[in-house]
Sequence to fold (142 residues):
Amino acid sequence: MVIYWSPEGGYCKVYERCELARELKEIHNISEEQIPTWVCIAQHESDFNTSAVGHVNGDGSGDHGLFQISDLYWCSPPGRGWVCGVSCADLEDDDIKDDVACARTIYRQHQRLNGDGFTAWAVYQPYCYGKVTVAKYVEGCE
Fold:
């Protein structure tokens, strides 16, 4: 893990793959079945960087933090929504408690809408779909 001071202000963290897997399990109580997919999403969305800010999307929205959560609907400001009840800036610090909580909210809503909550993330289908595919994201982690 690397912790550094972000130019935007505040401490940020870049996780190692297995470190994130352990934290998701031990601190955030993510099921072992889902951990490989969450680790895969974090790698492909932010390269495990908690301060990552995605470029402006076609609809004018931006993405924030470890799981690249959109400010269009989930966090504010600058977005128009605040479904997760968190500021986008709070998703860019070294504490991922709010990132995980918001990601779970997004997952639940998409699970209810289309039966697979991970489809909320664009990286899921090409990189993180299927148990065999994602197993490598926690390989060697104990």
User: Anything to note?
Assistant: The chain has a mean pLDDT of 89. The chain has five helices and six strands. The helical segments are 17-26, 35-46, 97-114, 124-128, 131-135. The beta strands are 2-5, 11-14, 63-64, 69-70, 75-76, 86-87.
